[in-house]
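Propose amino acids for all 446 sites.
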């Protein structure tokens, strides 16, 4: 049984309630020493999963709140847990937490509750990462994808692949142990389609990372074009507040300004780039350099022009930089001219009246993600993507070895490697360093 650990589970600051959580071998014993329930039921006799009102001892003060007991193994960590709900003041929660320490609990480390949940088999490793994705998620899609991970959707798929590999390994072991030549040759033939099928299943998963990655990090959008065409104004319109500095002096957007926008539940990181032109001003030059690197790295480029400019050398330079990217051509300041005939723009906008902004958002979504409605992007974590790729490589090696009629035990090594790589996702083969890396990103109290 593990020592009792305690932490405040709610974020710092003032709020309606704060939650202090104790998990370990006997948190109820600690609770009995610092909680006086209303009524006759003693803390030791608390029914699990039921809220009891009463007085919580904070050391130098008392609070009136609630206490709930979760009985192992049906709890988040798989251990006994007690939680106190107190008034949501920082000093109140801290005082109660300190009292749990005085009574023998130790301070919980980052993610220690979730780590225990993993070690006790309540969650796979990928599911714990789903918890972090949900907590850190900045868009609805990220929360959804985090929930898919947390609810073991990816893990179940991976476990299914692992069990097929295990069966294959068992078959290989039998053939290696009874090496009559015919059986071995026959066996190798049979392995190829099985390995190909598994490899195909992994490819389908890794393919979903193209969308998953953008769900997690957001689609990077570079808004570019000549100064004064209204890039900052469009950015502000899209974000719905004044983030970028708008001015009518050419070259005032000296730095790339970032803003995050959610379109249909998915995250877009918008960058307003300085005009890409030669400049004698040093600070402006730095801004221009940054802008260029942002433009190069962007997933989608929005090119803004207005009535003032037929394409010139500067426009040409920008267009050349974004030639290989999904591009949206915007003709802005449509409120000043109704002549839409001369432009090949995808959308005509006015940052002043808001005209065309919804269409621009729809185009951003389309260029960023393709058609709507494709969901089930299970793969949002780079770590999972890399592990799947390694499993895939091992399977390809195994297929090559089969074709080259290599001995079965050598093929078995590749198959085992694929199993191990998948085990890093579920957690079975994850090293202490991987666990450390994952749980250090959690907050204390989760
Ligand atoms: P940037 O240099 O491309 O970022 O351009 P700004 O957003 O700073 O805008 C330059 C000037 O054009 C400002 O005075 C804006 O108010 C004005 N402006 C921007 N968009 C529009 C628009 O759609 N219609 C009109 N009439 N003026 C605009």
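Proposal:
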């Amino acid at each position: 049984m593990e020592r009792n650990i305690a932490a405040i589970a709610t974020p710092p600051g003032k709020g309606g309630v704060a939650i202090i959580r104790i998990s370990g071998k006997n948190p109820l014993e600690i609770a009995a020493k610092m909680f006086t329930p209303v009524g006759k039921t003693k803390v030791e006799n608390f029914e699990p999963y039921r809220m009891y009102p009463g007085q919580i001892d904070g050391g130098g003060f008392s609070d009136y709140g609630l206490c709930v007991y979760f009985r192992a193994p049906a709890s988040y960590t798989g251990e006994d847990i007690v939680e106190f709900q107190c008034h949501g003041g920082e000093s109140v929660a801290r005082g109660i937490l300190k009292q749990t320490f005085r009574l023998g609990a130790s301070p919980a480390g980052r993610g220690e509750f979730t780590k225990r949940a993993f070690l006790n088999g309540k969650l796979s490793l990928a599911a714990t990462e789903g918890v972090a994705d949900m907590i850190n998620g900045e868009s609805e899609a990220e929360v959804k994808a985090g929930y898919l991970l947390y609810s073991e959707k990816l893990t179940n798929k991976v476990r299914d692949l692992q069990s097929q590999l295990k069966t294959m390994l068992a078959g290989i072991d039998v053939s290696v142990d009874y090496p009559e030549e015919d059986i071995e040759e026959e066996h190798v033939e049979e392995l190829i389609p099985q390995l190909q099928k598994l490899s195909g299943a992994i490819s389908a998963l890794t393919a979903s990372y193209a969308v998953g990655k953008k769900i997690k990090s957001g689609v990077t959008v570079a808004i570019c074009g000549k100064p004064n065409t209204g890039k900052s104004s469009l950015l502000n319109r899209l974000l719905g507040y004044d983030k970028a500095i708008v001015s009518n002096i050419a070259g005032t957007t000296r730095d790339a300004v970032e803003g995050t926008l959610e379109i249909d539940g998915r995250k877009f990181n918008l960058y307003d780039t300085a005009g890409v032109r030669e400049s004698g001003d040093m600070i402006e030059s730095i801004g221009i350099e940054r802008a260029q690197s942002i433009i190069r790295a962007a997933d989608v480029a929005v090119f803004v022009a207005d009535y003032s400019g037929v394409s010139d050398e500067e426009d040409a330079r920008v267009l050349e930089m974004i030639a290989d990217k999904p591009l949206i051509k915007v003709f802005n300041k449509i409120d000043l001219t109704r002549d839409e005939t001369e432009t090949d723009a995808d959308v005509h906008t006015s940052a002043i009246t808001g005209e065309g902004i919804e269409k621009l958002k729809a185009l951003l979504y389309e260029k960023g993600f393709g058609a709507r409605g494709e969901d089930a992007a299970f793969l949002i974590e780079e770590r999972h993507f890399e592990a799947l790729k390694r499993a895939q490589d091992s399977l390809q090696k195994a297929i090559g070895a089969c074709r080259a009629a290599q001995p079965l035990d050598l093929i078995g090594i590749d198959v085992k490697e694929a199993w191990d790589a998948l085990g890093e996702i579920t957690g079975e083969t994850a090293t202490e360093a991987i666990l450390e890396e994952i749980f250090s990103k959690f907050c204390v109290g989760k």
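Residues 227-233, 246-248, 253, 332-333, 335-336, 350-352 surround guanosine-5'-diphosphate (CB under 6 Å). Residues 181-207 form the longest helix (27 residues).
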